[in-house]
Amino acid sequence: MQVPLWGAAMTTGNMVTGGVAMASKTIMGAAVGKE
After folding, report:
1. Is 4 exposed, middle or buried (0-12, 13-18, 19+ CB in 10 A)?
2. C-alpha span between 17 and 35 (Å, rounded)
3. What is the pLDDT of residues 9-30, one digit of tens each?
4. Residue 4: left (phi > 0), alpha (psi -120 to 50), or beta?
5. What are the two backbone dihedrals, phi and then psi, of residue 4, each rounded to the nearest 5 degrees?
6. DSSP states of 5-29
7. Which residues are within 8 A (CB) of 21 and not within 5 positions of it... i.e. 6 or more apart?
8. Which domain of life is it from (predicted)?
9. Buried-exposed string 6-35: b where 16+ CB fall within 10 A, e elsewhere
10. SS3 of 31, please?
């Protein structure tokens, strides 16, 4: 199965973006919880 390079790049980008969003949400939640 041949995966187009741009398809793999988009998938990786979405995973990274999702991970960053989850991490920032967790950090924000922790910061708010400390207030």
Report:
1. exposed
2. 27
3. 889 989 999 999 999 999 888 8
4. beta
5. -60, 145
6. HHHHHHHHHHHHHHHHHHHHHHHHH
7. none
8. Bacteria
9. eeeeeeeeeeeeeeeeeeeeeeeeeeeeee
10. helix
